[in-house]
Amino acid sequence: MKVDKSLKLFFLSISLVLLISGCVSVPTGENIAAYSIGGKTYYPLISLCDLRHIPMQYEPLLRTVYLSSNNKSVNLRVGDSLILVNDNIMHLNSPVDVYQGTIVVPRQFKEEVFDVLFKPAAAALRRRGAGRIKLARVVIDAGHGGNDPGAIGRSGLREKDINLDIAKRLSSLLKEEGVQTALTRSTDRFIPLSSRVSIANRSGADLFISVHSNAARSRSLSGFEVYYVAPSVSDAKRAALTARSASLNLKDAAFASSSQDLRTIVWDMIYANSRAESIALSHSLCRIMDSCIDANILGVKNARFQVLKGIRMPGILIEVGFVSNLNEERLLRTAAYRQKLAEGIVEGLRDYSQDMALVEESRR
Ligand SMILES: [Zn+2]
Questions:
Q1: What is the CA(12)–ligand 1 centre distance, in A?
Q2: Other CB atoms within 10 Å distance of the CB of residue 146
Q3: Does the predicted model carry a pTM greater than 0.90?
Q4: Is residue 119 part of a domain?
Q5: What is the CA(140)–ligand 1 centre distance, in A?
Q6: Residue 359 domain flag
Q7: From the CA of 211, how far away is ligand 1's center (Å)?
Q8: How far is the CA of 214 from the centre of ligand 1 (A)?
């Protein structure tokens, strides 16, 4: 789809030119003009949308913009740093603005939202990459275990057993793809959340996946959902804590001996980036899973789960289905369905890892 011509004209003719001192054009290497506004890099939204063929709807009265493509959507408002990404609230470091008559978005929006959500020419790279999963190591966490059964279905199916079985299936599928895996538990035993977090953080993995099964009071509730760490979990606070306790695993040794302030800033960036990647992964999983299983896809959500708060890499928590729902309990009992779920997760990871490789490529 193409951006409406009249819409372009409209943007060109908007007379809301903000006169901000220190605005200069900077080259981007991507044929998109970028502006430095108040020391921050901004991009014209219309250029980003043009480049990726993303339809853009502007509501002049409310000064809101709506972008949507392939079931992914973003709502923005001029002057606001709060945006909606697939109906989830996200805070930008700087607000959406208007410069030289056109709506401009901060670099953070381009890199963490736009480039991740609306990937450039994904199909082209997929053909080249021959579908390899571009991850070196993944930590798989089977929720609960031992004396903690997790949720229990009406016919007695225990969450801990489903989680472990899917985790193991996922692990062997990934190994077949050449991805190293580490399981936080490979037997039916209890492991505290803090230990799961330290296993993940010691592993040097690219990704953390926690597998859970759901239960709800309403027995009619069913479906698959994916969680990432809630935006209310402060990256800055986590960064300050981590900077004190952990060393940075960066090639540049200068960081290792640098001040705590500097290390805090780097950790803050790592956490923010991890969250953006976790969101992208969650969406990939839900999108792919929609075509793999015949279940409700409840979508992407966020929560303050302790395991997700503690890990220092992109990570998600998958609720594969509801044991409290009779039909889903029956399905989860079958090895075939659990295998389907594991295979779907692998396909989601493939989609995500290739998107990430693309974003990396476009930054180069
Ligand atoms: Zn659970």
A1: 52
A2: 12
A3: no
A4: no
A5: 14
A6: yes
A7: 8
A8: 6
Domain range holding 258? 127-363
Ligand 1 geometric centre to CA of 105 (Å): 39
Which residues, including other chains, have CB under 8 Å from residue 4's CB and lie 6 or more apart?
none
The number of distinct structural domains making up the chain is: 2
Residues 344 and 289: beta-carbon distance below 8 Å = yes
User: Of 106, 137, 171, which residue is a domain's last?
Assistant: 106
Q: How confident is the model at residue 254 (pLDDT cuts 50, 70, 90)?
A: low
Whole-number Å distance, alpha carbon 144 to ligand 1 midpoint, is 6
Give dist(CA 39, CA 213) in Å, integer: 47
- Do 46 and 152 lie in one domain? The reply is no
The CATH number assigned to the domain holding 71 equals: 3.30.457.10
How many other C-beta atoms lie within 10 A of the C-beta of residue 94? 18
The per-residue pLDDT for range 7-35, each reduced to its tens digit, is 443 333 332 222 223 334 444 445 677 88
Task: Give me ligand 1 centre to Cα 171, in Å.
Answer: 19
Q: What are the pLDDT digits (tens) for 28-76?
A: 445 677 888 888 999 989 888 887 778 888 888 889 999 988 778 899 9
| Residues that place a CB less than 5 A from ion ligand 1 | 143, 150, 212
Say how far apart CA 31 and CA 12 lie, in whole Å. Answer: 19
Query: What distance lies between CA 34 and its chain's CA centroid?
Result: 25
Q: How far is the CA of 336 from the centre of ligand 1 (A)?
A: 21
pLDDT of residue 140: 98
